[in-house]
Design brief:
This protein is mainly alpha-helical. The protein has a domain of 124 residues: Multiheme cytochrome fold, CATH 1.10.3820.
Length: 193
């Protein structure tokens, strides 16, 4: 095995006898563009609602719940899809989130959430992971659509005005602190202060 690696390294280390440096450079560039385009296309395909609800765990549980909320149907016609709330827009944050989401694929493949009963048993754990992530990034995904600077406090209830102009404005709280359960049903919160 070691001799095979040494032989390949030797081939890679010497100049090409058949192709010019320009051809190899252009060929490498074209291959890189094709790889990058294919990679981004696949990455964006995993951000579609169709992909997210492709497994029955999501379609029959959280997606069904989302359909009854203001984030799905409202008077303005603006609708949030799964990736709007669960995948950051910035590339580095998106890649980190995709790596975290591989655990969800693991749960699908190995059946830890493949029935409504198993999903319900894991709901609080899954929700707490999302709340922790949103708390850590200052509810970045919420702020992609809901910009604090454009809030019209005169059209909010007194309770919302106090919350938005108080702890939220001072950076003591973030969106998810008060808005848990806004798009999905809350898990059993027994024992939470």
């Amino acid at each position: 095995m070691l001799s095979l690696l040494k032989r390949y390294w030797k081939v890679l280390g010497r100049p090409s006898t058949y192709y010019s440096l320009g051809f190899l450079t252009v060929g490498g560039f074209v291959a890189g563009v094709l790889f990058w385009g294919g990679f981004n296309t696949a990455l964006e395909a995993t951000n579609t609602e169709r992909f997210c609800i492709g497994c029955h765990e999501m379609k029959t549980n959280v997606y069904a719940e989302l359909q009854n909320t203001i984030h799905f149907t409202n008077r303005s016609g603006v609708r949030a899809k799964c990736s709007d709330c669960h995948v950051p827009h910035d590339w580095t944050d998106k890649m980190a989130r995709k790596m975290q989401a591989s655990k969800e694929v693991w749960g699908k493949v190995f059946g830890s959430i493949d029935t409504p009963e198993k999903f319900e048993a894991m709901r609080r754990t899954l929700a707490e992971h999302e709340w922790k992530r949103l708390k850590a990034n200052n509810s970045l995904e919420c702020r992609n659509c809901h910009d604090y600077d454009y809030m019209d406090f005169t059209r909010q209830s007194p309770r919302a005005q106090n919350a938005h102009s108080g702890p939220l404005a001072r950076g003591e709280k973030t969106c998810i602190d008060c808005h848990k359960g806004i798009a999905h049903r809350l898990p059993d919160m027994a024992g939470v202060p």
